[in-house]
Every structure is written in C-alpha cells, then in structure tokens.
Fold these 3 entries.
Entry 1:
Amino acid sequence: MTVEPLPSLDAHAHLSLSSSGVELARSGAVLAMTTSLEEADLAVGRREPLVIWGPGCHPRKVQSQQAFEAGRFRALCEPTAVVGEIGLDMGSRLYGCAPLDLQVRNFRQALEVLASMPRLVSIHSYHATRQVLDELRRRPIRVPVLHWWTGTAAETREAVALGCCFSVHSAVARQSKFRSHVPPDRLLVESDHGYNDPPAAIPCRVEWVEHLVGQQYGLEAAEVRRLVWLNLAAIVRETGTRSLLPDQMGAILDAASGDR
Ligand SMILES: [Zn+2]
C-alpha cells in the first residue's frame, strides 16, 4: 500500500502551543521540539494527527537549564516517541548560554534516562560537536539524531559509527560530508522553524531542503521525502515506539514502510 501524496516530514521544528490543531495541520508532519520542561508540560499531552511533541531542555536557555530535573524529564519522555531538543552549545561568547558545567550535567542526566528508554532524540551541538560525540560515547543511546550538524568530516564519520542519524537543515545540506560519509538510511530533513522568528505565520517548509539533499544524493525530491519516512519508520521500529505515535502518523509510517 502506498500513501500519495506523502506529507512532508520536518524532523526538527518549534511550533507555537497557541496554534490550533487546524493551524498546525498546515505544517505537514512535524517532530516538534520544546526548549524547557515547562513548555514540554503543556505540549506532550496534546494530540495532533501529524505532530509528535518532544520534551526538551535547550542548552542556550539558562532558565530551562536551571529548572531541569531528571525525574520530571523521565516522566515527560515516557508517553512520547520523540525527545528534544537537548544537547550542548559552546557559542556562549557569541550570544550567551547556560554555563557549560550545568549543560553537561543536564545532558548527562538526560542521556542516562534515555539509555534505558529508547527514543528518537534530537540533539543540538552548535560549537560543541566534539563534546556531544564524547558524551554519546560515554553514555550511548539507541537513536541519537544530530540536528543541524556542523561537525568535521572526521567527526561525521565518527558519529555514523556511533549510530547517529542526521536531521539536515538547508543551511548545511550542501556540505559534501553528508554525501561522502552519511548513508542515505541515516537521513532526515528539518526546518528548525521557530515560531518566534519572523515571519511567524509561515509553517514548516522542508521542500527546499528535500531538493538540496536530493541534489547531493542523486535523488528526486519526492524520493527524498519517501526516504525520510522510511528512515523514521526504521527509527520507530528500533526504539519500539510505534504504540506511542498519533494514529495518523502511525498509519502513514506503516503504509510508507509496507509493514501492514
Ligand atoms: Zn531547534
């Protein structure tokens, strides 16, 4: 069975909690990240047909980092197939971040939770690609997804060997390290759409990054779309999270991957 046309699948975006389900439906399928446990409290109980909300703690958000609590994080991760965004950011000289020791403490606690609770985990690593790989080596998790990855070619090879997937943003899609070092079955695409970024009304759009990734891998954009759904289906199988998906999302995954 095939589902045509497949909706777009944005593997990392930030949606406004004040948007209605009808408004969110304009964005296609989205793995929606939160930046604090406070936001996640309001998000993970929502049921939109094509949105999976992930509990997160953004490394740039000082208040989020200070308020992180591992037990609360664990409880928020339990009912959802996706977690994020979490990670490390060492760009503090550029724009200010939570103190690195606090970021590392929280990231380690989050990975500890996720080591025994497999999920698709969207990870931020800006100016901290080496540090994130070191932490994943120290405490491996089932499916780390490196979002907006800016690591070197050598780090990219290392990440692939560690089992990472990559959600590729249009800003990095042309970099040859993906084509050269990342197998197609590790790819997702993302907008990193931020609802506070102007123009706020534009929903998530991943057509351009589908096109760019297609150019790199010699695929049509429609083939890239099918590929990312297949890759998400594989991640869901690997993490055993099929029962946690919204019904419509699960049905598309099943049909796209020919499971049933
Ligand atoms: Zn983000």
Entry 2:
Amino acid sequence: MRHRLKSLLGVLRRRGKIRRYLQTHEVRKLHLGAGRNVLAGWLNTDLHDYGRGDELVHLDVRRRFPLPDASFDAVFSEHMIEHLTYAEGQQCLRECVRVLRPGGRIRIATPSLESLARLYDGGELQERYVRWAVETLEPEVDAAFPGVVVNNFFRSWGHRFIYDRQTLWHALTAAGFVDVEEHPLGELEQHLAEAAEFNEYETIVLEAERP
Ligand SMILES: C[S@@+](CC[C@H](N)C(=O)[O-])C[C@H]1O[C@@H](n2cnc3c(N)ncnc32)[C@H](O)[C@@H]1O
C-alpha cells in the first residue's frame, strides 16, 4: 500500500515537472540518460536520480516516453545508447521520432567500435589511451594491451551494444530519421571531461532530422 502510494506520488510529481517544462519553454530540448550532466534549458532525464531528483526527471528510454507527440525541438543523448540492446535502442529512437516535431533534430554521442579497433594500429594517442584505460578501468590487469580495453568495453558499465558509424547511421534511419550527419564533439558533450582527449578519441557523434 505504502509502496503504491509512493510510486503514485512519483508519477504525479514527474507529470508536474514535465508539464511545467513544456509550459515554460518555447524551444524544448530533451536530454536522455543525462546522468550528472544536467544541461540548462533542457528537460534532463535518466533512469536513476543520482540524488538530484529536483533536476532529473525519471525516464526509462526502453519504454514509451511520458511525453506528447511532436512536443520537442531537439533530443540529445551522450554515452547512453550503448547501455541498450539494439532492439531497445530502436524502441528509444522511434520514441525520439514520435516526440520530436517535424524538422526537429537528434544528436547521439556514443563510443565507437571503430576507435576500439584502431587501438590495434598503435600510435601515440592510442598507446596513451590504452595505458590510461587499463590503469583506470582494469587496474588489476598488469598488461596495457588493446585486448584488455576491448574486453572491458564489452563487459563493463552494463554496455549492451557498441555502435560504429555504419550501425548507428542505420539505426537512426531504420527508426525514421533522415539526413544523418557526423559531427565533431561540441559544447554539449561533457562525458569524461577530466580526460577530454580520450573521450574525443573514443566517441562518435551523429545528428539526424525528424522528417
Ligand atoms: C555512462 S552514463 C552517461 C551519463 C552522461 N550522459 C554522461 O555522458 O556523462 C550512462 C547513463 O545512461 C543512463 N541509462 C542507462 N540505461 C538507461 C535507460 N534504460 N533509460 C534511461 N537512462 C538510462 C544511466 O543511468 C547513466 O546515467
């Protein structure tokens, strides 16, 4: 009973936050899987609240978004889609199409499988990246090799599907987006701010339009 009351209150609170956001923003921007990167002017959402329930709205991207059709101008997600299976990613991207207005844009930043594969080519940045990744993420392994990083990438943080340019491009168009373009990292991307050059190395950013 208590649990049901609590979850009903949670639903009502979320509905209120969403209604207030939609009423007070002429340009509406939806941030999915925001984590601790709360962006000003955006409806910041995540599966978890990180103790920041006032700033984050609970939204599980694997389910129908609690948002009206064609109500947003932009959607952004950074290092989130790789936490979904490909099918869950499709469900999420189709929901993005639904809540975006025609002409609205999506921007997805995610680690790239191609960057992982390029670790095997060697090179100064790649070697530094491998050393950094093994020291920070797999400290118990005494071998700074690309294979350690690749294993970590596929097994850690709840990662389910790592995209490359081709698969992410396909996923966006299969979900209904058009005019896909690759972009460099920009001011929205804050992931791994303390290791910006490594984030830039590993991340791919694609934008697309809702027709
Ligand atoms: C690696 S963190 C990235 C956080 C932030 N975007 C950044 O780049 O620093 C992945 C985020 O995705 C969120 N996430 C994972 N699965 C999700 C889901 N099904 N629905 C919504 N958010 C999800 C996690 O809670 C987490 O905050």
Entry 3:
Amino acid sequence: MTAARKGLQVIPGGGEGRQDAVRIRGLGFRLLDRQKRPLPILDNVDLTLKDGEFVSIVGPSGCGKSTLLNFISGLVPVQSGSVEVFGEPPGGKDAAIGYVFQQHALLPWRPVLTNAAIGLEVAGVPREERSRRARDMLRVMGLDGFEDHYPREISGGMRQRVSLARTLVCNPRLILMDEPFGALDAQTKLLIQEMFLSYWEEHRKTVLFVTHDLAEAILLSDRILVMSSRPGRIMAEYEVGIQRPRNLEQVRHLPRFTELHDSIWENLRAEAMKAMQGRA
Ligand SMILES: Nc1ncnc2c1ncn2[C@@H]1O[C@H](COP(=O)(O)OP(=O)(O)OP(=O)(O)O)[C@@H](O)[C@H]1O
Ligand SMILES: [Mg+2]
C-alpha cells in the first residue's frame, strides 16, 4: 500500500496494541453478469480495523464499498477469503453492529420516539427503559421536542439524526456507515458531522465510514482507505494525523488537510475516471 507519496508526512494513528475490531484477509467476491460470465467485484481485500478507530473508505462508484460493508455485517456470506468481527465470523449474535444508510429508512407510521427505539424493541428491552434511552439519545442529536412528530413532519436532516439516534442508542461496538450524510445539503451536513464527531470523540466506537466526500473523510477519520475501481481492492492508505478533539472549521484550514486532500484525489482520480467511463 502506498501510505506516503510525494513527501506526505505520515503520523501514526495510535491504534497499535488495541484489539482488532475487524480483520479481513484476501476477501474476494464474484457475481455472474448477464451472459453468465464471472464478474469480479472485490479482489483480495485486506483490511484491519482496531477497536476504537474511525476509518473511512473512499473509492469510485461501483467499486464494491457497500458490498464490503455487507460482508462485515454478515448480510452477504463470504465466498473467498476471511472476515472476522471482534474475532468471530460476521453476523454472530454478540457482534453488536450498527448500520447507518444514506436513506434514513424510518417507519412512516411511527413517531420519532418509537422509530428511535426500534432496535431496543427488537432486542427485547422493556418499554420504559427503551423510551428513556431513546429520549436521551434524541436529546444528544438535538431532537428533544420532536419525539411525537412523524417522519413526514420533520426535515431530511432531522430524519437522518433520528436514524443515527436509532443506531447509537443500541450501543453498538462497531458502526458501519454507508454515505450516511450523502443526501444532505451542505450546511445540514456540516452540522450533523459536528454532532456525530462530538458523540464519537466522547464514546470512541469503532467506525467504518463510506463516503464520496474526501473532505468529510479527512475531517472525521483516523485513517482513510482508498479503493480501486472494480474489482475493488484497497490501493492506498493514509493516516490522517490531525489531533482530537477536532474543530471542523479549523481543520479545513490546516496545511495537512490540503495536503491529504490533494494526495488522495491524485490517487483516486484515474480510478474514478475509469469507473465513470465504464472501463472498470
Ligand atoms: N446483487 C447484485 N447483483 C448484481 N450486481 C451487483 C449486486 N450487488 C452489487 N452488484 C454490483 O457490484 C458492484 C459493486 O456494488 P456496490 O454497491 O458495492 O458499489 P459501491 O462502491 O457501494 O458504489 P456506490 O459508490 O455507487 O454506492 C457494482 O458494479 C454493482 O453493480
Ligand atoms: Mg454504495
């Protein structure tokens, strides 16, 4: 992997010595195309996430980022290679994985409070406790006062915060996030990033965060993995090396931010072009 190119300074992320949250070795995945020919989607993916690390994945559209998260969550069975989550095969009952998607997927017939509590309900948490915990988490997300509103009565940014609250209230050890803020306008996105980052800096859950937004990846992460166009593999890795807690406005003005942004884009550009022209 190319960690440092063109004089990019690499600052260790401090994950050493911690338990592996996710360990993937030689993961491959193929589908059959319309002519029933094998179509490689993922190729020999190696990836390790340390417990408490915030890692982002960037890569061209269609390179297999969502597919990779689906393997980690256990939604898709492993074809070749190995995937472990906290030392166990994915999908085990103790894995405690939270998954946040680009679209909020709230239940339209339920008000905000019971939408936020749905994971706790599934886990069999008694009504009073789940209601209290969901209220507390909605407050953290700045949504107190909206508990009785229905999803159609609140903004897109608020819906996405309910969706985040629904995941975080279950206290997952590992949070998979697939372009969670991708559908939001620029200002709402910035506010949610700040809110989520301050939650994360307090709780230090392991996060694997997929985004197309390089700035977002730098602002939030300890480490950034760059995937190639399809078949996706990890082609570069960057330690962000910006101290925490972070003030997102200040981080944008650091020379390190620009340096990382330029270097990652240099790596990604040709791959993104290939994917766009359908050559991948
Ligand atoms: N069930 C499926 N049947 C057919 N093709 C699939 C299936 N799942 C994924 N693919 C193909 O696998 C490739 C990877 O898909 P995936 O959704 O993981 O990409 P991605 O990197 O998340 O893309 P994006 O950035 O657009 O979200 C794509 O080319 C997609 O068309
Ligand atoms: Mg995707």
